[in-house]
Prior knowledge:
Elements: H1 7-90, H2 99-116, H3 122-137, H4 143-162, E1 164-173, E2 176-185, E3 189-193, E4 199-202, E5 208-210, H5 214-228
Antiparallel strand pairs: 1-2, 2-3, 3-4, 4-5
Amino acid sequence: MMRVRPIGLVLAxxxxxxxxxxxxxxxxxxxxxxxxxxxxxxxxxERTDLDARxxxxxxxRREIELEADRERLALERLQxxxxxxxxxxxxxxxxxxxxxxxxxxxxxxxxARVQGGLPYRRTERLGALxxxxxxxxxxxxxxxxxxxxxxxxxxxxxxxxRENTVDRQVIAVDGEERLADVARxxxxxxxxxxxxxxxxxAERDGSFxxxxxxxxxxxxxxxxxxxxxxxxxxWFDLPGGLPEAPR
Length: 247
């Protein structure tokens, strides 16, 4: 004969199980709510950090554009000075008496900019100016020819300020001279990379700093990759400071 368990007894047995399940669900719900609040706080913090980073990048972009404009304007002023002197000398008796000091002054001005600016092929660029000065002072070339040569050098400097490109040059890192690939952004920033994977950037004083973190190295690699693929424009998050050209 089947025995029927009283309903009251069954409910009495089930109620603790139901209460336990409710407690478990309540605890899980509380955990989920806490996780949601934590995630919400993290999202808000990351959004604040991102806004600050974007503002930082915008300031850096304006600094780069301003420095590039200053460099171009200074060279263009020098170019106009040489042009004016050449035109004035062309209307004289042909002896170009007033042109020689203008050329020497222009050489001195340009030399200061090369010495205080981006350390890109600095030895070669200064060497060209030294040779021109020697020839001008010794009258090995006439002042008008010296002015023409100075004009060409200034145009070459202006061309450098407009280019974003990859080149090779010898740099000094940790007291050692090394042949490196260099990524040049006009004449306001320069980054380097060697075959052994070391990389870094040009400092404001003309020295070469070395990247020390994985993020810095990745950023520099990204720049080289873009320039090697002939992507000459774009915005990159890059380490290092901007070299200051002399005012």
